[in-house]
Amino acid sequence: MSRLIQHAVVGEQLALAFDDGVECFLPLTLLRRACPCAACQGEPDALGRVVRPVPSIGDDGFGLRKIEAVGGYALQLFWRDGHSTGIYTFDYLRRLDAAQSS
Ligand SMILES: [Zn+2]
């Protein structure tokens, strides 16, 4: 798996650089809407159905307060409205970037 060598918020985007030469520029609004945590994306119930909750995004919810690396495979994003349970794996971030440019 490729390693993240740099990450920075540039304007309204999160810029990522990986050691295989891939660079991603992900709008913060897209990242927040794609927050992978259970509160935002829902969890499968006992029958495997995913009930999608309506995420509550507060004022400043599209601004980032802090970014922390998690175990060398993911980033945890701390949003200004206090939401911070989303763990964005590098794979997920790269897939998000590929989806928006296609
Ligand atoms: Zn979330």
Q: What secondary-structure arrangement, pairings included, does this model have?
A:
Blueprint: E1 4-10, E2 13-18, E3 23-27, H1 28-33, H2 38-41, E4 64-70, E5 74-79, E6 87-89, H3 90-101
Antiparallel strand pairs: 1-2, 2-3, 4-5, 5-6
Zinc ion (ZN) is lined by residues 35, 37, 39-40, 83, 85-86.
Briefly characterize the structure.
Helices cover about 20% and strands about 35% of the residues. The protein has about 100 residues and is of the alpha+beta class. It has one domain: NE0471 N-terminal domain-like.
Q: List bound small molecules.
A: zinc ion
State the helical fraction: 10-25%
CA-atom Rg in angstroms: 14 Å
Seen as an oligomer or otherwise, the chain set is single chain
Total count of domains: 1
Q: Would you give the CATH topology?
A: NE0471 N-terminal domain-like
Notes on the structure:
The protein has 102 residues and is an alpha+beta fold. Helices cover 22% and strands 33% of the residues. Strands 1-2-3 form a 3-stranded antiparallel beta sheet. A 3-stranded antiparallel beta sheet has the order 4-5-6. A hairpin with a 3-residue loop joins strand 4 (64-70) and strand 5. It is globular, with a radius of gyration of 14 Å. The mean pLDDT is 92. Zinc ion binds next to helix 2.
